[in-house]
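To the team - 4'-deoxy-4'-aminopyridoxal-5'-phosphate complex, inputs and output below.
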Amino acid sequence: MTAPGSLHARHRAVMPEWLSLYYREPLELTHGEGRHVWDTEGRRYLDFFGGILTTMTAHALPEVTKAVAEQAGRILHTSTLYLDRHMVELAERVAALSGIPDARVFFTTSGTEANDAALLLATTYRRSNQILAMRNSYHGRSFSSIGITGNASWSPTSLSPLQTLYVHGGVRTRGPYAHLSDERFTRACVADLEDMLGQTHGNVAALIAEPVQGVGGFTAPPDGLYAAFRDVLAPRGILWISDEVQTGWGRTGDHFWGWQAHAENGPPDVLTFAKGIGNGMAIGGVVARAEIMNCLDANSISTFGGSPVTMAAGLANLTHLLEHDLQGNARRVGGLLIERLRAVTAGLPAVREVRGRGLMIAIELAEPDGSPSPRAASLALELARERGLLIGKGGREADVLRIAPPLSLTIAEAEEGATILAEVLRQVRDTPGGKDRP
Ligand code: PMP
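Output:
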């Protein structure tokens, strides 16, 4: 029930109906510190979702707070019309980290806008609006990015400025090839790609893919799939765009970027990023080889992209990430967390699979007959909250719990979260059918 006059009621009165909130009693957060956040009742939560991976290092990281405050006290305004030291410095660092030779960076304010920019570049460079995207993909909800989002439930219209062809392979756990070994899976997906290309006029602009599908439920193909795709794409001049909005900045532990699990044939032509780099500030961006980046005949494509306050935050955040080897922490603590989650959920019938890499971990839930269980996922989300743990949801059928804490997660916090999740999933198992809570 939404109490009249409550913030929730006011939210509903002024916001679109399709803007849904997590939790039956929506959560209003007041502050955070480290891996914890607090609500208006003073309750503390261990944060295993970081506001959809937007808190990359830690909540209220002192270096970021200081950088933002200092910059806000100096000059807030500006656009891309003037030189800005922070923007240049962050671009230099991102270009060097990207692995793309002769890289150029353009900052935006979101992942959607970054993907829009990547599409603008690829279609202009290739003089084609044909794009290959992966089934079950998510790339944002602007008019062009919904046109490359593989699941209709995440795309509010079927109209699109692009001609999109959807390729098999982004998801290892579902689809017609799911039963195949990794090697045969990869071969089947490559054959599907070739078959698909054989039915076009040959002038496809690009393939865009998330190395690990984020909204799609933290699900990934076998390592090397996109390298095998590249063998097919590169001779035809088709670009590879890696959407690193969720997988970037060491999140997957083993790699700084998700594409590095598919690196045999070199880096992608274009890379997009967003979310965590700003630690809550609105930063997105696109990286591309100079010849691709420079194909546009434009003065700029964003006013606020790369604004000084966000760039100062991004620089402080990236410095902290690198100096504290949070990628290494994601690998170590994420590795322990996934092991622990597998151990504590073993034998629970609601749990179909625990998967992931680094601090990007999913628990896929099923009904007793093996069908996807959005019911169990919604219930688990509520029960975890009651026990002081925030997690995320996702997956094609909304049947997956997503775990993506700030990358500074400690072993003790990982243990605590795993223990709560085990209790939650045992309770989910014991809660019959229906949507009612126990
Ligand atoms: N790409 C991926 C892989 C994403 O997960 C998201 C957001 N969930 C986006 C793009 C869009 O980013 P934003 O919401 O910042 O526009």
